[in-house]
Amino acid sequence: MPEQVRDRKRTLLELHVHLEGSLSPGFLRTLAERYGQPGVPAACLTPDGSRYLPVAGFAQFLERYKAVVSLLRTPRDYHEAALGLGAALAGQGVIYAEVTVGYGVLHRQGVSVAPVQLALYEAAAQVAQERGVRMLWQADAVRQWGVDAAWKALEAALRCGPGLGVVAFGVGGDETALPAGDFAPLLAAAAREGFGTTLHAGETGGAESVREAVLAGAQRIGHATAAGAAPDVLELMAGAGVFAELCPGSNVATGAVACIQEHPLRAFLEAGVPCCLNTDDPGLFGLSLRGEYARAREVHGLSEVEERRMQQEALAACFAPIEIRADIGTKLVGDS
């Protein structure tokens, strides 16, 4: 199949995308005007305001992320952000996305979670009706803020629950701050309540961080990049069926890998670790999911068979209710 035809037709699933990291430069400027904060776009965007400035390493990325998130303050802001992400996903041929929302950040900022989640639920319904993209939500805690704060985020997620589109709970942030094992009881509690569970690991930490995340009970690992150089950890992931949410473009942007050629995508595929590609923070890094797959074909020799298998594995690993899974599966079959 010619590359341009294959690229246009492929139906995609996105399992690792942060709503806060999806804000377009234009929407960031809108929020800055809304709240009288011109310094935020001045610090984050190029002089013409058309794109985000590159970051020099993960620490600067976290500072950039905090600046952007500071402008998300009300349910209206989150609703508009979700509509913007939905439009972007539809333009890339994405039919399903599990979108991470910073519940830990909302608590830290003193913002009530329930009205925000209701706004997100309503935005997702609008996106599904108007654009044919299903969006469900993952509540996220921040590792460096501690286990107690993470429990509060989980409690808020449980109060919202599947009725408002929340299907998963994860822990992101600085993976080097606390051991993954500290969050094992939290993940177990989330799983008992029917939530899917994820942990960020192997992005800035080493392969041992990924091993710890698997042993802590995470069903999916965000990034898992460092495991690519550790055959024993890849074997552990493959044997346990733990899914890797790979984010090559993001890893290059934050300096987790030096260049796209060094991303270990091929190691995951050859080890039989279920995985798919994701954009992580597409607004901040100027990424698209379709572009990630195109680059993987060019740089890593991703074949059509491998790409199709990744979508099927993403479907198997997603946390959607069975009726939504069935609908996605039908569309993937039609795309093959």
- Unreliable residue stretches: 1-6
Structural Rg = 18 Å
Q: What sequence of helices (H) and strands (E) makes up the elements?
A: HEHHHHEHHEHEHEHEHEHHEHHHH
Helix percentage range: 40-55%
Q: How many domain modules?
A: 1
Task: Tally the beta strands.
Answer: 8
Task: Kindly report the CATH topology.
Answer: TIM Barrel
CATH architecture: Alpha-Beta Barrel
Please report the first level of CATH classification, the CATH class.
Alpha Beta
Number of helices: 17
Mean pLDDT: 95
End-to-end gap: 12 Å
Shape: globular
Biggest β-sheet strands, sense, barrel: 8 strands, parallel
Strand content: 5-15%
**Overall SS class:** alpha/beta
CATH superfamily: Metal-dependent hydrolases
Lateral arrangement of strands in the main beta sheet: 1-2-3-4-5-6-7-8
Task: Kindly summarize this structure in a few lines.
The chain has 17 helices and 8 strands. It is an alpha/beta fold and 336 residues long. Helix 8 (147-160) links the parallel strand 3 (134-142) and strand 4.
Structure in words:
- This protein has 336 residues and is of the alpha/beta class.
- The protein has a single domain, classed as Metal-dependent hydrolases (TIM Barrel, Alpha-Beta Barrel).
- 53% of the residues lie in helices and 14% in strands.
- It has helices at residues 3-9, 25-35, 39-44, 58-69, 75-91, 103-109, 113-131, 147-160, 184-192, 207-215, 231-240, 248-254, 265-271, 282-285, 289-300, 304-317, 322-335, and strands at residues 12-18, 94-101, 134-142, 166-172, 196-201, 220-223, 243-246, 275-277.
- An eight-stranded parallel beta sheet has the order 1-2-3-4-5-6-7-8.
- Helix 5 runs parallel beside helix 7, helix 7 packs across helix 8 (147-160) and helix 16 (304-317) packs antiparallel against helix 17.
- The relative contact order is 0.13.
